[in-house]
Design goal:
- By secondary structure, the protein is mainly alpha-helical.
- The chain has 2 domains: about 180 residues, Up-down Bundle (Vanadium-containing Chloroperoxidase, domain 1), CATH 1.20.144; about 120 residues, no CATH class.
- About 75% of the residues lie in helices and about 0% in strands.
- It contains 12 helices and no strands.
- Helix 7 packs across helix 8.
Length: about 300
């Protein structure tokens, strides 16, 4: 344990002097807003009910961030505070600590949403939420302050790159032949997994592959429309999210557990199906049920 970690542990203990059950519950709720499960609830809502393209772009940049975060955690192999002092543990967490995935993804997702909505009040809300999510990780004893600061910095860098390059990349992709897009959607995620074949490193490339395959297939048919009365949008979201969570949790329950035969392969299949459902299966299902008012041209 180095001097910086000792100082940071003392800071965490100082913060936790004020901890109470009600504050513990509050910060666990706040920390949930930086989890994979929270984004499974938020981003499909944007994609299916508000803006299909904006939702897809936000999901893709989140997946890039998630894969990079996993790589960096395994590279630095930084312990978490409660692994050095079990007394500071107020929540569960697995894997290494640096950089904080919650802080990094919070900047990418909530900052990305604020940039998309393009209004000062949304930036204020996003920045406040990002700060609270980062602080919650320190309060709960699952991250050092330096883990959170690193996550915030990396997330800000990724968000900046995304905002600067998104239109240029989209134009380049639209110029590619369908077969090329499909090949890239399959080969790049598989290559990333082969470079780093761990369970956490499988998830993001698998969703990205399923999502982009679905987007490529959808581009060859008339696009699903997000328009409609609020009851249609609500029913879209409820039914679509129910199936998304069914795939995510249901397949996770019936597929092999970590360490069993074919675990990584079927983990890829599970997350790939989630991505395909969000980009293609859900919109097709909504049109089948006439929950979409019409078709609005190519994606």
């Amino acid at each position: 344990m180095d001097i910086l970690q000792l100082w940071e542990l003392d800071l965490i203990r100082t913060i936790q002097q004020f901890h109470r059950p009600v504050l513990d519950s509050l910060f666990r709720a706040i920390t949930f807003l930086g989890t994979q499960e929270a984004y499974l609830l938020v981003l499909p809502f944007i994609m299916w009910c508000i803006d299909f393209r904006a939702g897809a772009r936000l999901i893709i940049v989140l997946l890039v961030s998630s894969y990079l975060n996993t790589d960096l955690k395994d590279l630095f192999q930084q312990p978490r505070p409660f692994q050095l002092d079990p007394g500071v543990k107020l929540a569960d967490a697995t894997g290494y600590g640096l950089p904080s995935g919650h802080a990094q993804s919070a900047v990418v997702v909530w900052g990305g949403i604020a940039a998309w909505l393009h209004a000062t009040r949304f930036w204020v809300a996003a920045i406040l939420l990002i700060i609270l999510i980062g602080f919650s990780r320190i309060y709960l004893g699952v991250h050092f302050p330096t883990d959170v600061l690193a996550g915030l910095a990396i997330g800000a860098g990724l968000l900046g790159i995304f905002l600067v390059t998104r239109q240029r990349i989209q134009r380049r992709l639209e110029q590619l032949h369908f077969v090329i897009v499909m090949l890239l959607a399959i080969t790049i995620p598989i290559a990333l997994i082969l470079i780093h074949p761990t369970p956490n490193a499988v998830s993001a490339p698998a969703i990205a592959s399923g999502l982009t395959v679905g987007l490529a297939l959808a581009s060859h048919r008339n696009a699903f429309s997000v328009e409609g009365i609020w009851q249609q949008r609500l029913f879209r979201y409820v039914t679509g999210t129910s199936i998304t969570l069914g795939l995510y949790f249901g397949l996770g329950a019936i597929f092999p557990a970590e360490g069993e035969t074919f675990y990584l392969v079927l983990r890829f299949v599970r997350y790939w199906m989630v991505g395909l459902w969000i980009s293609l299966g859900g919109p097709w299902f909504f049109q089948l049920l006439k929950l979409s008012p019409g078709q609005t041209g190519k994606l």
